[in-house]
Prior knowledge:
Elements: H1 2-42, H2 49-55, E1 61-70, H3 73-77, E2 84-103, E3 108-119, E4 131-135, H4 137-145, H5 151-163, E5 169-173, H6 174-179, H7 184-192, E6 212-220, E7 232-235, H8 247-250, E8 268-273, E9 278-290, E10 293-299, E11 325-327, E12 337-340, H9 349-353, H10 362-365, E13 368-372, E14 377-391, E15 406-418, H11 421-478
Antiparallel strand pairs: 1-2, 1-15, 2-3, 3-6, 4-5, 6-7, 8-9, 9-10, 10-13, 11-12, 12-14, 13-14, 14-15
Helix pairs in contact: 1-11, 5-7
Amino acid sequence: MAAARRRVSVGLGLTGAACALMGVFLLLVGPLIIKEQVIKNVRIDPSSISFSMWKDIPVPFYMSVHFFEVLNPKEVLQGAKPMLNQRGPYVYREFRYKTNITFHDNDTVSFLEYRKLFFQPDLSNGSEDEYIVVPNILMMGAAVMMENLPNFVKLLLSGALAGLKQEAFMNRTVGEIMWGYEDPLIDTINILVPGLIPFKGKFGLFIELNNSNSGLFTVNTGMKNISRVHMVDSWNGLKEVNYWRSSECNMINGTAGEMWPPFMSPTSLQFYSPDACRSMTLVYERSGKFKGVPTYRFVAPKTLFANGTDYPPNEGFCPCMQSGIQNVSTCRLNAPMFISHPHFYNADPALVNAVEGLHPSKDQHALFLDVHPMTGIPMNCSIKLQLNLYIKQVSGIIQTGKIKPVVLPLLWFAESGSIEGSVLKQFYTNLVLIPSVLDYLQYIFLGLSVPLIISAAVLMAMSQNHKITELLRLEGTSGGHLVHPPCSGRIT
Length: 492
């Protein structure tokens, strides 16, 4: 019996020790294994899991466009406050893919990323054939751009505008405003003021977006230094742009806006946006989960579009107006264009009050990125921007009437997407489930080792106690009788 207990206790002890060793091994080596797997699979390498996702983004992206229709164009010409009505959304399925992928010896890769957009009638509230009254963007933009030219030039333009029957507001279809329309005004302006608008043919707000690339990006692959993966090395061969008035504002910081280096901290992230002609910094808001995947949410700080007075580092983006809008004329053919959050969210209230019909809301108009911090891969995102045109009365150009100076919203759009389906399942299994199982196993092994070792110790103690008791019993029995030598001949 005692021998059996000893064998059981030894077995339990060995099993407990093995569990303890396995738990300690997983505790010490498990994180290193997970880290190595993450590094192996997030760098830009044809053998990594994320490479195909990086090359041809499988996430279904959608661009939703909302237009602001001007309800009282005649009254605005007489100096009244513009009354706006939001139309849409007009939704487009967006496909992104990379071409000209070229790996370099300095741990970088260059590529061109193209976008193709396809209208989705079933997801839209309206069709591309619908008419909307908006400012005559070409005419009103050119008028403000010519404000400081000699009066006779402006009078010539005004006469030409009258001959072409151009007015301050136009009634055009969604498709025309988005993808372009023929306008004789383009040729007229090029004749009167050569170089003022350096393009010919059609004019459309998104004409250069569809079937076009966002410039030649060169980014780090992370093969030598994983902390630099996806970080932009250059854009169109430039280490910094020359649109702005300070070196800080001209810097190309962060990634191309698709992925970030792994093992993120809850602080901030940066990316360069060719659409905004600048680098942007988003700040950490909170931790959460997207379909079971842990995420950090990053949002735009109030300082993103603040003017130089409210936030001195933005002085380089000036000339500025109120906080909440950014002048992008220097990278948009000098047209008086501004970008902002939709409905002037987080902007100076004066901008909202200058028109009727805006209702800024964090839920509807704030941009966000939900990123898996271990890998730096976005799980869910919605990037929202608004295009605005600065219009006003320009002396000498009678078509501008008595319009009071106003930053007038034209449209806002949201580019949104989230990982789902087989891509989400593969991501969850390899980068969430397996690491979690390893994490739990180390505690299970450590947890099992404690009762096993205690049980072994108890059984061993019981065995020893039984042995001692048996010895004492034997000694007690021997003490009650006289033991005579054999052959003594005496019988007790």
